[in-house]
Amino acid sequence: MKKTSKIMSLVLAGAMVLSMSACGGSTAGTAADTTAADTAAATAAEAAETSKEDAGEAKETSAQAADGTVYKIGVLQLVQHTALDAANQGFIAALDDAGIAYEVDQQNASGDQSACQTVASKFANDKKDLILAIATPAAQAVAGAVSDAPVLVTAVTDPAESGLVDTNEKPGGNVTGTSDLTPVKEQVELLQKILPDAKKVGILYCSAESNSEIQAQMAKEAIEAAGMTSQDFTVSSSNEIQTVVQSMVGKVDAIYAPTDNTIAAGMTTVGMVAGDNKLPVICGESGMVENGGLATYGIDYYQLGYMTGQQAVRILTEGASPADMPIEYLPAEKCGLTVNEETASTLGIDVSNLK
C-alpha cells in the first residue's frame, strides 16, 4: 500500500479540494470574462494576464477567441466534503481538457434541501446551457425545476430508484449522468478481513437521503450473507451524529457508513467518537477514511466527475441527448483500497495483512 501522510490510498491521488461558494453566491470558476470577446487582441492580452493567476482561465479565454461560443453552466453541490469536491473538480477538468469556453456558476447548498430548491429555480430562470447536480438531494431539486436544459447528475447511487430517470439504461428525459454505486459486498468482505471476530455491525446513515437507504439495504443483505447481524442507526441531520454514534457503543462490534453525504460531512465527529470507544468504521469512500474512518474499498470520485464532464462535452459540442445516454459507472479497476494507519493504531488493529 502507498502511504500519504499516514494514510494508505490507492485512489483519489492528487485531487485538490475546490473552493466552493456559499449558497446564493456566484463564482466565475475557471470561466473567461465574457467582455474579453470584444476583439481577438483584447482576448489574448487578457488571457496572458489571467494566466499569471489561473492557467484554466487563460485556456478558456483562448478557446473563446477561437470559436466565439461560451457555454453557461450551473453547478449545484449539496455539501462540501472530500468526495463531492473531487467529483466537482473532475468535472471541471474534463471541460478544460476538451478546450471549450464556459462560464460556471458554482453553488453549494451546505446540506440544506430548501437551499437546493432555491438554487435549482435560479438556474432554471437563468437559462443555463447545462446544469450539473452533485449528490442525490441536489439532483432531485434540479430535475424537478429544470425541464428545458440538459441536466447531469453525479455522486448519485441509483438515479432510477431516486426518480431522476426512467431507467438507468435509457433515461428518457433531460437528465443523465454517473452513478457512485460502491462495491458494498467487497466493503463488507473487507470488514470481515480486518475484523474476523465481528458479529454485529451498525449501519450509520442519514434517513433523508434515498441513496443511503439503497446502500444500507445492500449492506444489510451482504452482512447477513456473511453470517453477521446488522442494525440501522440513522440521523436526520448532522446535529444528531455525535449522539447517534455514542448510542452505538456496546451494541455493535463495528460501524459501516455508506457514501452518505451527511455522514461524510460529519466524518470527523464520527471518527472522534468511534475512536474514543474503539469502534472501527468501514466507509463507503476514501475521503471518509481520511477524515477518521478505518478503511474502504471504493471508487475514485475525481474520475467519476471527469466521466460526467466528458458527458457534458458530448452534449454541448456534439448534440448528444441525455434521453439516450445511459447512466455510466466507473469500471472495477477504478476502485481501490484506502486504509487510515493512524486510526488503525488508535484502535489497536493490525492492518499489515492488507495489500
TrEMBL record:
<dbReference type="InterPro" id="IPR028082">
    <property type="entry name" value="Peripla_BP_I"/>
</dbReference>
<dbReference type="InterPro" id="IPR007487">
    <property type="entry name" value="ABC_transpt-TYRBP-like"/>
</dbReference>
<feature type="signal peptide">
    <location>
        <begin position="1"/>
        <end position="24"/>
    </location>
</feature>
<keyword id="KW-0732">Signal</keyword>
<dbReference type="Pfam" id="PF04392">
    <property type="entry name" value="ABC_sub_bind"/>
</dbReference>
<protein>
    <recommendedName>
        <fullName>ABC transporter substrate-binding protein</fullName>
    </recommendedName>
</protein>
